[in-house]
């Protein structure tokens, strides 16, 4: 773990060069995953043109069920619980059971899929690396729920953890991709509800802006090895706004962030959401919120999930652990 004081670090740090494992995973993703997403996007566009109501009834989260084969780290204790409108679970690695620190985690979803099963192993790794208990939140997904309803689930999760006696200065929100959006929006919602804000936020490859142009610019500079641009636009247009019938949600990069705890933003060079990270960082800095950006060479979207195979992911998680230790210590001292 890097124990260098975070307050002395530069606001943006480049990590690299990429490991051979990162390069191999990029190639495999580009060959086998990206084309499938492209085909599914075209199919979705056709269905949406002919029978749009069919897509709005779809259960795109069914892919999460077989993901239960991704077992948590050995010795991890998983305790299911229930929030008012969604499932959640405590994920506690060996040695973290008595910790007074909690990470509330919002899984990546592209707003429409995956869930607790998909992220249980990663949550257990976070618990082991940080020494914190992880509260894994299965927030509601589009098209059956709006982004605002997902954020409401996040706020209920925060209230639940606070009600167990964990002080806010020992809580960190974290999330990746669309889950990063929910994490940031939940922090804003907590502040606006008059709740004490958590110690900090960790966003990994987060969706934070509705501006598609900055995403197009990102993939002009570096090829996204996972997502075609059409896939992201399709999800946003068809599901997030339900073919334009729901208002465009206000995104964190377009919101006043004043009063929130520090942010750690990790992003890869080879992903479409790279510029979302920089736009959010600019907003945070303008609003006086401490923010650190880590840019990882040639890594793809949410490379941290592959910690079993990739030393770059292991190093990134160690950086997260160092940040969590820093912000919770700073917040506790201030309190």
TrEMBL record:
The active site is at 177. One of its GO terms (molecular function) is triacylglycerol lipase activity. Keywords: Hydrolase. InterPro entries: AB_hydrolase_3, AB_hydrolase_fold, GDXG_lipolytic_enzyme, Lipase_GDXG_put_SER_AS. PROSITE patterns: LIPASE_GDXG_SER (PS01174). The keyword Cytoplasm does not apply. Pfam families: Abhydrolase_3. Residues 103-304 form the Alpha/beta hydrolase fold-3 domain. Signal peptide: none annotated. Belongs to the 'GDXG' lipolytic enzyme family. This is Alpha/beta hydrolase. It comes from Mycolicibacterium diernhoferi.
